Amino acid sequence: MKRQGFIKGSAILLAMVLITKILGLLYKIPLTNLLGGTGMGYFASAFSVFTPVFAIVVSGIPSTMARLTAENYALERFSNMRHTKRTAFFLFTIISAAAAVMILTSDFLSRNVVGEPSTKYALMCVAPSIIFCTIMSVERGYCEGLQNMIPTAVSEVIETLFKLILGLGFAYGLMYHISDMYDKTGMIFGTAYENSRQAASAALPFIAAAAILGSSIASAIACLYILISGKIKGDSVTKQMLQRDTITDPTGTTAKKLVVCCLPIALISVIMTFANMIDMLTVNPCIKTAMKASPHTFDSLLSDKLTTDMLPNFIYGSYIGLAVTVFGLVPTITAMFGKSILPSLAESCAKNDKKAMQSGLTKMLIVTSIIAIPAGMGIAVLSEPILRFLFGGRETEIQVCIMPMSILGIAVIFLAIATPCFAILQTLGKPHKAIIIMLTGGIIKLFLNIILIRQPIINISGAAISTLVSEVFICALSVRSVCKMTDLKPKVSEIFVKPTYAAIMCSVTAVLSHETLTKIANLQINHRFVTLFSIGIGSTMYFFCLYLLCETPKNIVNYIFSKKNPQNP
Q1: What is the pLDDT of residue 474?
Q2: Which of 321, 239, 248 has the alpha carbon at shortest distance from 46?
Q3: 187: part of which helix (H) or strand (E)?
Q4: Cα 566 to chain centroid, rounded
Q5: I need a labelling partner for 466 at 20 to 30 A (CA). Which of 234, 239, 336, 561 fits?
Q6: Cα gap 12→38, rounded to integer Å
């Protein structure tokens, strides 16, 4: 098993994230166009229930396994390292099976938690995936602890690829089947409908469930791959290495250690899901209040297909399906830097090498800022063109999301920087700090949601504003905590000032390019080409400014592509 350092490990995970995000968009965009705001409401509501359960059961496993594996490897406790893996498989599979059974009581959850009985089909389809994801997480964490990021990267790509193929395939296949059923019988699964509009609306929960079923099967395929790959390639632990270390901790002690390590991480993950849970619980009732206060504010959204009763779920589904989808792209990428640095950081902690810790953290913060700041600013200034590029044809949904996505673009910067900091706090043995920070940020968002969304002039933009305020708070405290715990004096100019200046130049260039091309374009240039060209010009300006201003990107490029790796960035 080949080990990689922080930069090369990050490069592997970054490449994986870029591939999976492209595949994810190829999945999410057609699905959003198929389901619309209302159907995405069912889809998002099911995942809003599933995600906290997933966070409790699964989210802590990869980082816990990576940390314990790295510590055992550094201390040359190879037998105990394998024993920990076997114990984790047994323990977490039992827990995940119990969680899956709980989700299968979907009728209760859909009626009493979501408040929308039709989401039960989607919940039933998503339940099995928690078992497959648990097994994958143990294997991924074990490999990551050995500083081998390839199994994680390949399994993620396989999972996303089959999600695209099966999820969309099942959704479109069921849509055509239901359409044919209605044309022949006037009914859908035994229920008669007066017209095709009612039938199309009634079909949405089933189509959303079919897409989720495809995702669950994709998780099963990826799980099978990583298990077979692990058996074939092994972990590079030889018989001689095992003979030098024959002592293992008692199974009960190991299980307790796994649970103790996972629990705080799971709590952090649950709190991180609060944003979606808070939106699910507050957006609909607050939009209803805003509609009562000023009904005419929402008149532009109403049509024959979208009645007043459907509007709150439509607005929520549009916001989650379009704006939040784009918002989540960048933090997913920067989270990989936290994942990549975790094994080396755990080894440095085990050896009490503070200099190595500070060097790794500085690199992580610089690389994270270099990606997060321009991406967030770009989303903020080009929100409408990006939405039209990704979701063209969904004009009403785009109308709902333009302003919220601009606000979320700025929030992206703070969330993307904070996300890897949480992994560091966990590795340093201070997960309670991350829990307190996230919980306080969630409370801020909850109160601001209730206050702002109820204002008709603000409505759904209130959810984005509350996210921005909470993320600023979370980012400031998480970075401060990491620096304080490691005695790190961050290079403010390298980490924040120079990338921000380059990002401003990038944003101005992109906006001017887009406006200029749009004006000329009574030339009939395709709007998607205009958006891509503007982003390309802006990105070129950014990298040019960054290359002139910062030394670190040059060192990183040399490190990745030089065979001798003469300079460690």
Answers
A1: 92
A2: 321
A3: strand 187-188
A4: 35
A5: 336
A6: 37
pLDDT confidence bin for 349, thresholds 50/70/90: low
Q: What confidence tens digit (pLDDT) does each residue in 358-391 have? A: 777 777 788 888 888 999 999 999 999 999 888 8
Does residue 283 contact residue 463 with C-beta atoms inside 8 Å?
A: yes
Tallying the residues shown for the chain, one arrives at 569
User: Dihedral of the CA atoms 429, 435, 437, 441 (nearest 10)?
Assistant: 160
| Contact predicate 491/482, CB 8 Å | no
Secondary structure string (H, E, C) spanning 254-281: HHHHHHHHHHHHHHHHHHHCHHHHHHHH
511 or 557: whose pLDDT is higher?
511
The partner residues of 187 in beta bridges, in order of sequence, read 192
Q: 147-174: per-residue pLDDT in tens?
A: 788 888 888 899 989 999 998 999 999 8
Return the amino acid letter for 291: M
Closest CA to 416 of 461, 358, 473, 371: 371
> What distances in angstroms separate CA 131 from CA 92, 188, 251, 314, one per listed residue?
9, 32, 22, 32
Measured between its terminal Cα atoms, the distance across the chain in Å is 25
In the predicted model, is pLDDT for residue 569 greater than 50?
Answer: no
Strand boundaries in 21-133, DSSP class E: none
pLDDT of residue 180 exceeding 90, the answer is: no
CA distance 442 to 407: 18
Helix (H) or strand (E) holding 193: none
CB 517 within 8 A of CB 457: no
- Residue 396's CB is within 10 A of a number of other CB atoms, namely 18
Share of the chain above pLDDT 70, in %: 85
